[in-house]
Amino acid sequence: MSEPAGARLLDAHLVVERGDFRLDLPLTINPGEVVALLGPNGAGKTTALRALAGLLPLSAGHLTLAGREWDHPDRRVWIPTERRPIGVVFQDYLLFPHLTALDNVAFGPRRHGLGRQQARQRAADWLTRMGLAAHARRKPRQLSGGQAQRVALARALAVEPALLLLDEPLAALDAGTRLDTRAQLHRHLAAHTGATLLVTHDPLDALVLADRLVIIEDGHVVQEGDAATITARPRTDYVARLVGLNLYRGRAAGQRVRLSADFGLTTGDRHDGEVFVAFPPSAVALHPRQPDGSPRNTWPATIAGVQRHGDNLRIQLNGPIEVAADVTPAAAAQLRLVPGQRVWAAVKAAETRAYPAG
Ligand SMILES: Nc1ncnc2c1ncn2[C@@H]1O[C@H](COP(=O)(O)OP(=O)(O)OP(=O)(O)O)[C@@H](O)[C@H]1O
Predict the structure, then answer these.
(1) What is the dihedral of CA 147, 153, 157, 163, to 10 degrees?
(2) A single Pfam family, by name (predicted)?
């Protein structure tokens, strides 16, 4: 069911031309909603953020927040950055180095017209909420990465922004700090009643923090939806890699899907026509010889690469299809996992998913 237009806080069609590159991104965000914008390098994420922040003008389209036009080139409407009620958090948190944490957070409210005492009070409240009351008088260089990032978030939220823009907010943090900061961020975003756009390369950030994912490639939306739908049914190679699945396109006749002139797979679902077939690397078993007597899909493959992947090894295979397989150290010990080695790959039909590509 589509949302009524009135529920939208942000209503935009961001069209930005930069040389040969064109961003063409319809984007709506409801009050309190967190949307993650994902895409490979050069997809246009930063361009979209800059357009929303008023650092780049739209070439066409429109940008409206709470019914107020911020940018509408056809109507010559343009609201400059400093008059847009936004909060911004960047990956390298860009705090003012010469100001204390408190004064960094008070800076926004001051600029939005609050008196000095009120602004400092609001900043102190935000630092308390972030668990940083004891660090209020510290300068940024006296804070850890995670603390500095929480100050940056407090600074962005202290202006009670209608639109919160988060640009890779956790990317600069080490793994442990990232986990904690992600959990805190989740709490604060849940309480934020404005619209939030989170730009990230990290699928985990998107899955944990966002209500909806918008994935762009080369300036265009390739897939959009909630995390469950996208992780179950990726529609491009980038999205499949993002969610950790092997993905192929082919032509189905019942459970049989032809992926190329001389290769096909039997899948767990029945379809007719163009479909995607997806399965996780953990569904691929490797054998030194052709396994017999099983109803599995099997094919000969050559090891192209081996990487650690959590507690397992992720094996890249060439052959009739390129495929990633996860094997346990125990299974790996029985195979010679060196590039160039020939093996047999097997996938149970029941562990594959097929869904229409149309
Ligand atoms: N100042 C510029 N002038 C012309 N083209 C630009 C400019 N800045 C970026 N581009 C082009 O715009 C496209 C989108 O870049 P953008 O930085 O928005 O991508 P991104 O998704 O943020 O990538 P990344 O993940 O690498 O940060 C790229 O093709 C880039 O080459």
Answers:
(1) -170
(2) TOBE
Q: 125 with 266, same domain?
A: no
* Interface ipTM: 0.95
Q: Last residue of some domain: 206, 238, 270?
A: 238
E-strand ranges in the chain read: 10-18, 21-29, 34-38, 60-65, 68-72, 77-78, 86-89, 163-167, 195-199, 212-217, 220-225, 246-260, 263-279, 284-287, 297-309, 312-318, 323-327, 342-347, 353-356
- The CATH number of the domain holding residue 318 is 2.40.50.100
CA of 48 to the centre of ligand 1 (A): 10
pTM for this predicted structure: 0.88
Within a domain: 342:
yes
> 69: which residues sit within 8 A by CB, 6+ positions away?
62, 63, 75, 77, 79
What residues form DSSP beta bridges with 279? Answer: 246
Distance 323 CA to ligand 1 centre (A): 30
pLDDT tens readout for residues 296-322? 799 999 999 999 988 899 999 999 999
Q: Look at residue 93 in the predicted model and tell me its pLDDT.
A: 63
Q: Which atom of ligand 1 is nearest to the CA of 47?
A: 18
Residue 140 and residue 187 share a domain: yes
**Low-confidence stretches of the chain (pLDDT beneath 70):** 1-6, 92-93, 294-295
35 and 113 part of one domain: yes
Is residue 357 in a domain?
A: no
For a mutational test of ligand 1's pocket, the pick from 22, 23, 47, i.e. the residue with the most ligand atoms closer than 8 A to its C-beta, is 47
Nearest CA to ligand 1 atom 3: 18
Q: Which helix (H) or strand (E) holds 229?
A: helix 227-232
**Ligand 1 pocket mutation, candidates 20, 46, 56, 222, criterion most atoms within 8 A of CB:** 46
